[in-house]
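## retry 2 of 3
previous attempt timed out at serialization; input unchanged, resubmitting
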Amino acid sequence: MRNASLSCPVCRSADTFHFQSVRGRDYYRCGKCEATFLSPAQLPTPQEELAQYETHENDVEDPGYREFLARLAGPLLSKLPAAATGLDFGCGPAPALAHMLRDAGHTVHCYDPFYAPDTDALTGSYDFITATEVVEHLHDPAATFELLDSLLRPVGILGVMTEFLTDDSRFAGWHYRRDITHVVFYSEHTLRYIGGRFGWRVEIPRKNVAIFSKHGARAAVQPHSAP
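## retry succeeded, writing output
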């Protein structure tokens, strides 16, 4: 059933409908960008979010965590000029990706509303921005993507990593859905829709990774399949 009074948090369309209810949590889908999102009335509080984040055990030096982040770092580094300046948006308490990119010769600033809340980082301009395991937490992703677009230089690159929603039949039991701080889910179509909205070139170089390039950014690496 369509719900014209409930706008999509990703593209602000009113073309939304009830998708599923799972254990008392109500999810909706946008008919335009195909984002799937939790009812705004059921969004977690900041205190609930922080309590969940504090259960994570990410370590800057953890080889497994760095290998996980390399899924984004690899394609991104292949596109960056030397000594680029970037922002790790939503860096969390252990900004391993920022360390990896600094080790590669780039300058990286960090911002996180809980762990690195210096808003000065949101007033600069950047050659690249990363958002790894961030966009699924956003309560107003439309506004956030607008912000990131404004921070990117004319040839800037945005790297996003989030687990794509690919199978509606498995949504109810999907581990990614069960995290209470995960409130919006993106299909490949959703990410391409976002790219089209801002005029960004969109690539999916690896599973669950999207690279957005502003007009004039360096030529894209070719997408390839990866487990």
